[in-house]
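Quick note —
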Amino acid sequence: MQKQAVVFNGQEVGIAVPVENRLKFIAVRFNVIDLDNRLFDTVTEIRRAITEHLASSDRAIISH
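Predicted structure written out below.
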């Protein structure tokens, strides 16, 4: 594993840094800051978490 940029919808949103056979997500965009420092097994898993996080944020905004 090596350090790599995490791109979501064409925008760099963070960096995946290897930590003991896992990947630590370092957020560089405010809209995904709640995922900062979380550990994941793959970049695909990081992107899935971003998708779910942004969808739940959108639902929270709509319900207000």
